[in-house]
Amino acid sequence: MIAKSISALYQIECYILRGINRHFDRKTLNVYFRTITHLGSASFTITVALVTMLLAKGNLQQTAIASAISLAISHIPVQICKKLYPRKRPYLTVDGMRYPLNPLKDHSFPSGHTTAIFSLVIPFILYAPVLVLLLLPLALSVGISRIYLGLHFPSDVLVGVALGTSAGFISYFQLILFL
């Protein structure tokens, strides 16, 4: 019964994955997703967190600190999960996946890029809720880009969203409580 349910969920996940990845050859989408995916990279997210911490003042600086803490703590469970659940990337296991040259070769679960962008933006959204209009679509685009590029399954991205969002909430509210 459980094996049948897991198989059914995997089939649904592959259906969603193929539905998003099938647009891989569209030039405009390719430019967009190949560009936006880098906003979830370690170099981008760490740079944004550090620069904002250095340049901001007052409550915005505290929010940037919360964001940096969130970014740091969110990757502890990412690394643990990648070791405990060494899931291969979709382009290696699902027939017909299209993917960029020189794709990542580490484990797929969970999406580190998605975790990073959500852990970075959630404290800023909590600080100034109007930023949700800009930052949430941006973060979701990074997550979708990971599926589009054939690098992650939808569940990898969903877990990344959950980890990044949780770390963002915890960091922001812990920092507010202590200051």
Question: What descriptive keywords fit this protein?
Answer:
179 residues; mainly alpha
Describe the overall structure.
Helix 3 packs parallel to helix 6 (112-127). It contains eight helices and no strands. The relative contact order is 0.18. The model has no long low-confidence stretch (mean pLDDT 93). With 179 residues, it is an all-alpha fold.
Kindly estimate the percentage of residues that lie in beta strands according to DSSP: under 5%
Mean pLDDT: 93
The largest β sheet comes out as:
none
Write down how many β-strands occur, each being a DSSP E stretch of 2 or more residues: 0
Radius of gyration: 17 Å
Shape: globular
Reconstruct the topology from this structure.
Layout: H1 2-21, H2 27-36, H3 42-55, H4 58-84, H5 90-93, H6 112-127, H7 132-148, H8 154-178
Describe what is shown at a glance.
By secondary structure, the protein is mainly alpha-helical. The chain has helices at residues 2-21, 27-36, 42-55, 58-84, 90-93, 112-127, 132-148, 154-178. The longest helix has 27 residues, at 58-84.
